Amino acid sequence: MVIVLKSNSSESSIKDLIAKVKAKGLDVNVSQGSEHTIIGLIGDTSIILPEDLQSIDIVDSVKRISEPYKKANRKMHPGDSMIDVSDRIVGEGRFHVIAGPCSVETEEQIIEVAEDVKKSGATMLRGGAFKPRTSPYAFQGLHDEGIKLLLEAKKATGLPIVTEIMNLNHIDLFADVDLIQVGARNMQNFDLLKELGHCKKPILLKRGLANTIEEWLMSAEYIMAGGNSNVILCERGIRTFETATRNTLDLGAVPVIKEKTHLPIIIDPSHATGRSSLVAPLAKAAVTVGADGLMVEVHNDPAKALCDGAQSLDPTQFDELMQDIKRRVIFENKVLG
Amino acid sequence: MVIVLKSNSSESSIKDLIAKVKAKGLDVNVSQGSEHTIIGLIGDTSIILPEDLQSIDIVDSVKRISEPYKKANRKMHPGDSMIDVSDRIVGEGRFHVIAGPCSVETEEQIIEVAEDVKKSGATMLRGGAFKPRTSPYAFQGLHDEGIKLLLEAKKATGLPIVTEIMNLNHIDLFADVDLIQVGARNMQNFDLLKELGHCKKPILLKRGLANTIEEWLMSAEYIMAGGNSNVILCERGIRTFETATRNTLDLGAVPVIKEKTHLPIIIDPSHATGRSSLVAPLAKAAVTVGADGLMVEVHNDPAKALCDGAQSLDPTQFDELMQDIKRRVIFENKVLG
Amino acid sequence: MVIVLKSNSSESSIKDLIAKVKAKGLDVNVSQGSEHTIIGLIGDTSIILPEDLQSIDIVDSVKRISEPYKKANRKMHPGDSMIDVSDRIVGEGRFHVIAGPCSVETEEQIIEVAEDVKKSGATMLRGGAFKPRTSPYAFQGLHDEGIKLLLEAKKATGLPIVTEIMNLNHIDLFADVDLIQVGARNMQNFDLLKELGHCKKPILLKRGLANTIEEWLMSAEYIMAGGNSNVILCERGIRTFETATRNTLDLGAVPVIKEKTHLPIIIDPSHATGRSSLVAPLAKAAVTVGADGLMVEVHNDPAKALCDGAQSLDPTQFDELMQDIKRRVIFENKVLG
Amino acid sequence: MVIVLKSNSSESSIKDLIAKVKAKGLDVNVSQGSEHTIIGLIGDTSIILPEDLQSIDIVDSVKRISEPYKKANRKMHPGDSMIDVSDRIVGEGRFHVIAGPCSVETEEQIIEVAEDVKKSGATMLRGGAFKPRTSPYAFQGLHDEGIKLLLEAKKATGLPIVTEIMNLNHIDLFADVDLIQVGARNMQNFDLLKELGHCKKPILLKRGLANTIEEWLMSAEYIMAGGNSNVILCERGIRTFETATRNTLDLGAVPVIKEKTHLPIIIDPSHATGRSSLVAPLAKAAVTVGADGLMVEVHNDPAKALCDGAQSLDPTQFDELMQDIKRRVIFENKVLG
């Protein structure tokens, strides 16, 4: 961390600052510029937030040099992490496709979709039981009944199931869920993250609507700091000024993530765009750009979907996409599933 | 709600769509344009999310005309709401200043700050006990001990206390807190909002970093739908491309909110800008633009603050600001507190 | 275009509004909802801007249904446009790679880079002669001397040349340039666009930093309305809150553009990310997502580049990328160049 | 400027970098951290863009410490600049209100509006002659005829006139215009800025839709570097994700600008919000926050305005606003005009 001091700082206040920093167990390196004095901090700076140093009145600005995340940092773990989701490995040469409806609706629906997507090559089944909806008056999901139906579909197809948690009191309800999803709106629900850090389940951590890559990795760090290293990241579009798509899919985040962390990353083109016609081209690009998988909404009757239907593929569209994806996974020298 | 159909929609599929809409208890008005058929929905459309209709393949686009919020809507409640915070009224001609440190640190600190800000004219005391920090390694607050210290400061000064809740299991801990704050990162933590809807406490609902005004009002609606109408809104800056300030304070949100809802709104210039030198000019502008109050960070030793010190005023700066604010409140024909 | 009226509009003011609209040669379709009257406009609404109708006091909101662009609209021209750049065809099954340095510096430099990128498979040469720099004190390009050097490099290699225009008085200077680039900062320099509409040269129109896809197509429409249909679009990243990359590359814009317009689109991953390590993964993804080409910065000595070196590939890196791109172009059943 | 080197940089490459920097006439200060070597540049760093240094492969990141603008920098000119607009002084204790229609339409219209706004207290007259419109099919202004009409209105009222330039060839046409406006879309039309740097006219430089405050000041620097120091800044809203207002007015930019530069700044609440009902509250807040003036759209018949009518006040609304503004200007110890 580099601290740039204001040009008129007194010697005694500089000494005070240095003493404070040393009291936190860090060493310093002072260099005198023409206009500004610059103090470099030496040691583990992850315990300090730059905004905390900003408070000191002689400080002009603070620049972090080392990343604030440790367990998620590729420097500490140069090889790719492989996350075990009920014996399916995510990361390192494997490509996963998680498919299924936005919401679990009925036993028939979820089992039919599960069988359809499995036949097409999906490697995991998704389905919402607890749904974060902007309106309190909109359908909120089937809750525990939804999880029960997902487990029926798992029994019928063998596909591991992925579903979203919204409440830290529900962790027991998710005991048989294979991969627990944290949604974009809860990416900085730190109490939920801490709780998930104490379980051993793999976690699918979606990027918040307006969160930077660094904040996202810090949220992963919250889970990992609690002892749970089984984190898979999911980019699902960020909020920008553009209105032609629901959000703007940040595919450039994939190579950035690959540089910064050893954790796997998958792409959700369905929520990112909100339009089914854009799902296939962006799903294909996700394979190319180096993602470790996809999360795609598939509904057996999109026009009847209880939520978010506009972005769902029907099973035929999904099957066509999967035939194409399979060729691309081979092209990238990866293996499906 | 207006549904614009694609230009080549078949008569039978249009009939199907109309039937579905009528099945939800709504009536329709069909008008045939040169290129597009347009269907207007008649009745209570708050149960429908536009994205759900988008799923139907003949639908080109959907435009909401009536607002999706009901209890928060000024149309349903033309007069300004007055929220009772332990016998202090927020709204309608009153102007409140909530002041105090980012974090509660020690009994001496919080009581000293409380006495200082009270002397200067603050009408409520703020202080963080549970702190949402981006890093798991940074100070997270004193937790229940912090609330205990706030209650000591309340006993010493009589000021109602305001502090942030991050966990729905903590509601009992907040039994003696006068105004419960929901932070920006939890604005769409719907399970927390629902839980707060079942208590009677006044809630200070901060706007999310990248949430629209409509989403913010829908989050207020979540609390109100549960039976708790005591919601005060707080604008605290939104995330934009600009880096000269931490966030961009959206003062234009105040007159927009005043048109759309009867709920009071206050401004937090400290978190919005992240720089103490910008707090005073924006605090003054907040009075002028029609806000019902301010939330300002004050620390008795900003340079020693455990978090977010850069944006804190010291008691002298706060006192100067308050002398100015008092004149402005009078100028606006309002009353402090 | 659909006009939603305020709920309390008087019959006479509605009649006035209808009369005004009819005076512009449009017909109307009035439908009476429960709360709102809705007026649909029938005819060519491209002459009306929604914000102009907003002015009328009984108007609640206005929604455009037909796109405001005509010549750029795919509805008017369902097949893909093929743009002829000095006998090289852009669009429809061809994939072009425009490569070269940010700035033209010396004859040796530009000829060496031109020969290098040609050998690797680039189909056009880029190089900046007039450079838009944020600082008046930074290097601004070699100007007409730069164009002369580009023409030398064209003579040496046969590659068509692409370079940016910043001033409508320079069109004559660009007489021998094969493809004239309009930079992001000039995307809404309407006087420049109008002037380019009167020449017959192909134009490479970059998307503005914070412009929507609709605004971008309207800028293409400016050029086309003047009589010049030879427009190629270039996505180069949009400005968002994220700071890990210089801009956020919006690859989802490619399938959106393919739906809305018949014009070709290419991708510039160099300016989008500002970091050379991210160029290759995003260039590959651009092929996959359906772009018609790439624009890539290549410098024979990136560390010595006079501008924007951080994002430049050296000739060896570019050659590696091109070998990979060639395989991908074949995979997509397209032809390079 | 501080250069942070990558952790594994060789001694010889560090020496090379230092030699390059010294060759540009700068001195360096090297400090060795635990992980990173840091090089501080000493001297006038305005000739270097950080992105140029990023190109060097041993460079991890570059941080500017001194601002890149010199003539616009308050450090070089601690007192407020006073800009003379045909004998009206802008800045330092004066508050100006520039009012008038979006577009000049007829002689009757512009003279009537000019007389109205003068009567209410406006100190300058605005009116668009050259209009930047997103659509080539929309009304583009009366051009030189519009300027002629503005000059008629000036003759009738004595009010200095303000109107927008879009084309560097038009400078002669603007010979009698008192204050030349550069619109948001041309803020980085550097050739136009350079040309305006060579005339002596005062320039009203609007902030670009998505430009940072630093970029805005660099555009002012372009004009000033050419020899024209008569620059007035105008904040008119920035583009964000929020859709309730056309743009988000960044009132926090006013105190930031006051810290960084000596140039005056005015606020345009009309374009920022796009809705007339929001103009008054934000205009009042602009006085409070420390702006040096306002630019407000007033039309004698907003419902008939040829452009942008939604945001225009009628003369009665403007008169009410001005009576209020006058009281506020006095409250701030300033003088109108």
Major beta-sheet overview of chain A? 8 strands, parallel, barrel
Number of helices of chain A: 10
Distance between the first and last residues' Cα of chain A:
41 Å
Number of separate strands of chain A: 15
Task: Give a description of the structure.
- 4 copies of one chain form a homotetramer.
- By secondary structure, the first copy, chain A, is α/β, with parallel strands linked by helices.
- Chain A is 33% helix and 19% strand.
- Chain A contains 10 helices and 15 strands.
- In chain A, the strands form 3 sheets. In chain A, strands 7-8-9-10-11-12-13-14 form an 8-stranded parallel β-barrel, surrounded by 5 helices. In chain A, strands 2-3-1-4 form a 4-stranded antiparallel sheet. Chain A has a two-stranded antiparallel ribbon with strand order 5-6.
- In chain A, helix 3 links the parallel strand 7 and strand 8 (124-126).
- In chain A, helix 3 runs parallel beside helix 10 and helix 9 (276-289) packs parallel to helix 10 (315-331).
- The longest helix of chain A has 17 residues, at 315-331.
- Chain A is elongated and about 75 Å long.
- The mean pLDDT of chain A is 92.
- The interface between A and C is large, with 36 and 36 residues.
